[in-house]
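Re: that chain you flagged

S.,

Sorry for the slow reply, it's been a week of failed gels. I finally had a moment to sit down with the sequence you sent. For the record, here it is as I used it:
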Amino acid sequence: MATQTQQPPHLHLAELTAAQFLDIWKHFDADGNGYIEGKELENFFQELEAARQGVGVDPSHAAFKEKMKEFMANFDKNADGRIEMSELAQILPTEENFLLCFRQFVGSSSEFMAAWRKYDTDRSGYIESNELKGFLSDLLKKANRHYDDKKLNEYTQTILRMFDLNGDGKLGLSEMARLLPTQENFLLKFQDITLTAEQFNALFTLFDKDGNGYIDEQELDALLKDLCDKKKMQNIGTSGLTGYKRSIMALSDEGKLYRTELEIVLCRDSTL
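Prediction finished late last night. Pasting the structure tokens below so you have them in one place:
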């Protein structure tokens, strides 16, 4: 099938709407893996420099490489050699910057999980478009942003286009967690812990020692340590494990973590 050649979006450095930001992201993240990296990154920086200087730039020139190195030192916050969407949001002046707005609302992974629990009202393990709309409405009120219903619908659709990786019209936990800064994205750190439904059921039964249908904080602690040992994740460390446990417990009902809540984290939609 012949692919249509697409004109790259112009990297003007005036304020962008969320839709323009998304067009730029999708153009430069050519393989759609959620990062601008390698050749994509060089292309992006070349366009950015050309927009800043008003003339074309030579990527083979030593000064270009030096500038790119300096640029990455400033904006590649987690120093992984690539740019993620939240880092791009810091680079481009986006008028309706959901990502920065979201940071004020949800600063840590445990706050994120508490927000997830609040807005996944039907406990389906997904944030559907109507639930996302409620989330964005609260987010904009908290940030003192003015909006009408038409704008709110537009924002909801834009967020879905940004983060709905599998195109099912709703956001799974790992898709929604891409809103978090990388260092706070506990799902990325623990993405090697992925269980099948059978493995999960066996594990839950094993650690729900008193058989009361939920796991408390101590039982979760033992379960996570066991999982890390089995998956040979010694690099996590005690503080990492404590943070992960705290994030998961934010899903709990007064310290009781029921099967469905834990399944969302360890089983369902853990394919980021």
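What I noticed first: DSSP finds 14 helices and six strands in the chain.

Talk soon,
D.
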